[in-house]
Amino acid sequence: MKKAILILLLAPALVFAQKPVKPNLNKVLNFWKEGKLKEAKEMIDLAETDPKLSLDGKTFYYKGLVYAALDTTANEEYKALATESLTTAMAAFEKADGMSKGKEYFVTDQTGLPSLKSQQMLILANFYLNHGATLYQEEDYEAAIADFLKTQTVIPNDTNAYFYGGYAYYQLEKYEDAVNQFKTYLDKGGKSPDAYSLIINTYSTQLENKEEALKWTGMAKEKYPNNSDFPKVEIGLMIDLDKIADAKKGLETAIVKEPGNKIFHFYLGYVNSKLEKWEEAKVNYNEALKIDPSYFEAQYYLAQIYLIDAEKVKRDMNNLGITKEDQKKKLDLDKLLVEKYKIALPFWEKANTMKIEDANSRIEVLDKLSMMYYYLGEDAKAAAIEKKLKELGVDN
Questions:
Q1: Sign of the CA dihedral 127, 128, 129, 133?
Q2: Distance between CA 153 and CA 141 in Å, rounded?
Q3: pTM of the entire structure?
Q4: Which domains does the chain have, with CATH numbers?
C-alpha cells in the first residue's frame, strides 16, 4: 500500500521533469510554409528568448514572416493570436536587417528556388494595396485607408499607396489628410498631374485657401508646361483673389518676349474674356490663330464670344410680355437674332472642321451648330448635325 502511494506521489514530479521544448528555426520555417501559424508563432516566440538564437538575424527574419502571415491570414483564429501583427513583423524585419551584415535573407520556395526578403516585402505590400483597392470599391473607405497605410509601412516609396490613400481620405471628407497623401505621392516621385489638380481643387474649395491653391497651380504649371488646364485654373484663381491685373501684365510681358507663342496670346484672350473686354479678347484669339490656324481652343473661345450678343438678344426676347408693343419688339429682336447667328455661325463651322480632342467640346460645337441651323431654317444641315449627335450618344 505504501508503495502505491509513493508511486502516486512521484507521478506529478515525473511529468514536470520532462524536458522543455527546444526552439528550432527549421521547425519555425516548416510550420510557416505549411500554414501552421499557431505552432510557428509559439516556436518563434520561444526562439527569440533563446540565448543563442537571439543572436541570429534569421530568428527575427522568420519572426517577421510569421507575424506578417498572422496579419494577412483570413483565418480569424490565427489572426487573434497577436495584436498589431504588422508592427511586430516590421520591427522584427528591421532588427534582422541590422544583424544581416549586408546579406539579404531568403527562403526557398516549393520549387527550391530562393525567395528574397525584398520580393516578399513587395508581395506583402501589394497584398495590402490590392485589398485596400477592393475595400475602396466597396466604399469601405476607413478599412481601405488602413490597408493603404500598411502598404506605406511595408514599402514607404510605393507612390500608388499615397495616391489611393488621398482619394480614400477625400471620400471621408478628411481633406487635410487627403492633401497630405497627395503631397507625399508627389514627393515620392509620383507623376500624375491629377495629384496637383486634387490638391489645388481641395485648397480652393473645401479648405477655402485660394492663395495656397494658387501657389500649387504655379508649381503644376512649371511641372507640366504643356497642360492646358493649369493656366486656366491659375487665371480663375487670380480673378477670385483680385489679382487679374497681375495675370494680364505677366502675359503681356511674356508676349513681348515671345510674340510667336500662341499659348500666351490665347491666355491673354482668356483673361480679357474674364474681364468682359470682348474686342481685346477677339484680337488675342485671332493672333493665336494666325500663329496656328488649327488651334481649336482659340477658335472655340473666339466662337463663344460671337454668341454672347446673340444670347443677350435671345434673353431680351424671352423677357417680353404679350402686349402688341412687346410682340412688335419681339419681331424686331427676332430679325436681330438671325443676324447675330449669321455672324457667329462661320466661327462655329470652322471650329467643327478642326481636330477636337475633348468629347464634351465636340458635342458642344455640334449642339451650337444644330441650334443655329435650326433657327436659321437650314433644315438639311440641322438634320445632318442631329445625326452626328445621335452617333455620339446624344439624343436631343
A1: positive
A2: 18
A3: 0.69
A4: 294-396 (1.25.40)
